[in-house]
Amino acid sequence: MTRTYSASGRCPACFVTQPGYDHIHVLGNQRPRQRRTDDRVVTKGFATEILGSYGAVWAFFGDLEPALAFGRAARMSWDSSAFGVHDAFHDKQFDANLGRDITTLLVDRDPAHRTRPDEREVLLRWVDGCWSKSSYFCPPERRW
Questions:
Q1: Of 19, 31, 83, 86, which shows the fewest CB atoms inside 10 Å?
Q2: Can you give the three-state secondary structure of the chain, one letter per residue?
Q3: By the 8 A CB rule, do 75 and 82 touch?
Q4: 119-129 and 64-75 helices cross at what angle (nearest 10)?
Q5: Where are the domains of the chain?
Q6: Are 17 and 24 in contact (CB under 8 A)?
Q7: C-alpha–C-alpha distance, residues 73 and 68, integer Å
Q8: Own/partner long-range contacts of 95-103 (Cβ < 8 Å, ≥24 apart)
């Protein structure tokens, strides 16, 4: 993926900057496809946006359940004013010119999962997916 930068060195397509991500772009109509190769991994999932006195913070999750739980818990903080859960893609690609991975978060700006009539059920699935043998969401059907 070729990036074009402005004279300031900032990517004009980025709508926000955050440590840990080289780029955070709005996800357009053309969605990337999931892939896993030696030099690139594209994963479909969910991005949780937390807004507060510290600005906006984004975190990517492969599953809806931890994304919603993270947002709900963060919103309970006195420092948080809002949260949103968005469809997203996490794209990590090795850049040979830079000699390192470039990490891009592609976000659908519609927070489609922020208010859900089944929020309680989603959060209960998150609780069921908490497992002491994994730091990742691991519902019973995925356990080894």
A1: 19
A2: CCCCCCCCCCCCCECCCECCECEEEECCCCCCCCEECCCEEEEEEEEEEEEECCEEEEEEECCHHHHHHHHHHHHCCCCEEEEEEEEEEEEEEEECCCCEEEEEEEECCCCCCCCCCCHHHHHHHHHHHCCCCCCCCCCHHHCC
A3: yes
A4: 110
A5: 23-135
A6: yes
A7: 8
A8: 102/3, 102/22, 102/23, 103/20, 103/21, 103/22, 103/23
Model pLDDT for residues 16-50, shown as the tens digit of each residue: 888 889 999 998 888 899 999 999 999 999 999 99
Give the tokens for residue 127.
């609780």
Enumerate residues 6+ apart whose C-beta is below 8 A from 116: 68, 122
